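Archive maintenance. Older records in this collection stored only the sequence; we are now back-filling the structure field for every entry so that each record is complete. The fields below show one back-filled record exactly as it appears after the update. Entries are processed alphabetically, and Squalene/phytoene synthase is next in the queue.

ARCHIVE ENTRY
Title: Squalene/phytoene synthase
Organism field: Paracoccus haematequi
Length field: 259
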Amino acid sequence: MTLDACTELVRTQDPDRFGATLVAAPPDRPALITLYALNLEIARAPFQSAEPMLAEMRLQWWIDRLEEMGAGKPPPLHDVLTPLWDAWGADAGRLAPLAEARRRDCERQPFDSADAVAAYVADTAGRLMVRAAERLGAQGATLDAAADQGLGAGLAAWLRALPRLQPIGLGLAAEDTAETAALAGMAREALARAARSRAMLPKRAAAALYPGPRVLPFLETVRRGDINSYRQVIEITPFQRRSSLAWLALTGRWWRQGG
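Back-filled structure field:
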């Protein structure tokens, strides 16, 4: 079991985080790659069965393994958990809340408000970015800025995914454009708070704080109601993705990602 399986998983399933990982210093990359591979696995665990109880059992398996790792017990040989243990050791136990936050996905229940979505995103994408930034040197009060950046980036990603989430009962209970506009506003405010705190964060953490390409223009489009967020998908072109990652690599600026 090597890092290669995790690398391929992230490269094919999470290209934005994969690209940002390549900007990180080589010694930091295994920790990021294994963290993001774990995130992909626990995110899809609730969807491996249409039966909520079985879906939760699959998710619980991941929670149990992470808690065992936190207690110092190496995992069974596994394409993701073995490299995760090599990179994180007992600190992998601190990643169990990422899986706990996915329990509601097993229930296939839509969100009843923008605030409920924001709370879920803070516990998933927000917490993921905090753990990544912490591993790359962020600490103390700077983790609040990482949480804000994760919330803003996570809300943007959730809104992009909404046309796929809505049909399977994981979107919003009512297709209200005021709710999506509110979410876009929350995301912009969170990203702005993080940007104001950028001087506090170590430059080394830039790869962990990357929000993805064209985040701010997309959020403004949603906020203005220029698209039907429940139906329309705005695709990211390969050129836009490469340009955005090149900007990160050349400048180290993870904030105010417009291009």
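Update note: The radius of gyration is 18 Å. DSSP finds 13 helices and no strands in the chain.
Entry marked complete.
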